[in-house]
Amino acid sequence: MAAAAAWMEPSLDVDKLSYEIFSILESKFLFGYDDPKLFSPSTPATPSSAGLHPSSAGKVRILSIDAADGILAGAFLVRLEASLRKQSGDPLARIADFFDIAAGSGTGGILAAILFTRGPDGRPLLSAAEALRLLAKHRRRLAFGAQRKGILSGILCRSGGLFRKVFGEATLRDTLKPVLIPCYDMATGAPFVFSRADAAEADGYDFLMEEVCAATCADPAAGAAAVEMRSVDGRTRIRAIGGALAMGNPTVAAITHVLNNRQEFPAAGGVEDLLVVSLGGAEAPTAPRKPSAPLSAAELARIAGIAQADVVDQAVAMAFGESRGTNYIRIQGYGAAARTTAAADEALTERGVESVLFKGRRLSERTNGEKLDAFAAELIKEDERRKRSNATTVVIKPTMTPSRSSSSTFTTMASTVTSASL
Asked: Has UniProt tagged this entry with the keyword Ribonucleoprotein (predicted)?
């Protein structure tokens, strides 16, 4: 630390402003996470004086959903959508109306796909409540349908499969807003992120939504085989397993995508230009065990997933600093995973767990429901600001070639997703 500070002392090579910015970031990272005086107006080198003030063009709104308990995340989204409808006065408002990008992994990826895929009327395919009912009805199929090798694709995809019934021939290009859905590609030995931005540019990055969802929720721990899939032009081949292994908490991926995609998000220069809500799952308490007993593969995977999600949460909260209570919120349950919608609804009245830099974890001061209601108010403020302003905040990238989906396909999708068969 001393060496780094000495190296960064003002000199002919490092101007004073750069030194001040470095000092702020260094102090904030190590000592100032909870220090309200660090960026007070009396501080000489404030973010505004260093040119780090929020953009006048507004804030990019990001939704991130963990590869965790889909029922719980679905309940959070239902509450958020209901709050958006009530506060905006629009009874038909949908989640996708108030977000500019969605990232989801595992069952979170399924939720993101359902809520942001275009329906036959040009609106989101399903509401949050409809998406939750779908997940609740088919929870066992999604969680346990892959316990025998190779059965996942037959149950969820292909002709008559669940995802085929929901999405039809829709591809990544058919999402209303940018989406990011990760998996792990066994062919290359690296994470792969399905992205609408990439799909809009080339067929080689465009994939059927049914296969994207099957890929991100393929769980080897449950005995699932890798999902063999190809892009719509057949040029890109992926051998995918679940996104939970590659990126259980996709929040950082979404933030990085926005800050490095000036074509679609020209006004986003830093985290001060973002509004982010990250939805996690419930952390089931560890069962009593002998201290000397070895951990099973499932236990190790669970611990790794929880740790990864917490590390991401801590890093993002640290980056947002004092605005982490307004511009960034993390919602997750505390206790056993929600197996019913009633249990998930109960989690809304509980105070969730928050990660604190270098201090472990603590219970939030507000309930999960209260935090979602407050964040809904921030989303509506941004929406109203855009209606009054001519500044460009988001420019959705158009597709370079026509979508594969047709009106007849969407008509089939509409009748399917509203039928009792789902």
From this structure: no
